[in-house]
Request: fold
Amino acid sequence: MRLLITVARRIHKRPLYTPTSCLSSAASCSGASKNSGLQFRDNQLVCGSTGELVQSLRGQVEVRTEFISEEEEGALMKELEPGLRKKRYEFDHWDDAIHGYRETERAQWGAVCEGVIDRLRAVAFSEGSPLLGPVHVLDLDKAGYIKPHIDSVKFCGSTIAGLSLLSDSVMRLVREDEPAEWLNLFLPRRSVYILRDQARYKFTHEILKDDESIFSGQRVPRHRRISVICRNLPV
Ligand code: OGA
Ligand code: MN
Reply:
């Protein structure tokens, strides 16, 4: 348990790009949502600096809305909340890529949650792809956020799949060697996002803090948010 959390921490070591404001002049969009208050059409969940960029990352960046039901979200919370509640949110590690978080890992799930995890893995990973056994659970306080980073290539493979519980949020991807190239992803509560290949290796990803949480010109209030993240192993 302890070792795995250390491994998970090492994922977050590279703040590379600090945005001064949220970009909202989206050139192109793709995806689907009708979840909370915000309504975006099918082709509007992924926006980027240019249409060509959005197009070139199609297949490497995916958002699936309403991936789980409210009941499944409730079942996940029921399993996760008692353990999380025992920990304190961590705010003061200035060099951490995550601010205002607590985290855990889970290898064993009850039947409903196991069904969700199996479904998540089935859509994200090809059959036989060796997976990181325990699932990473990250609980961001309302004031918490994730700074730009690239997950450790030593510990994690080509694909990252994350389920968002409790809150909508905005994920930003910025090309590491060309900061003018960016994508914003609208992640509605109960959606899943998948990052693969170039999107995972060449772009930093981050979850915007509440006061910068704007997608396509619309404010996306960030509440407490829990992500349930599955990864594969490097080959
Ligand atoms: C991470 C990360 C994103 C999320 O833990 O490395 O980028 O959805 N998390 O919480
Ligand atoms: Mn990450």
About this structure: The first strand starts at residue 28 and ends at 30. Residues 11-12, 138, 146, 151, 162, 205, 207, 227, 229 surround N-oxalylglycine (ligand 1) (CB under 6 Å). The CA atoms of residues 150 and 204 lie 5 Å apart.
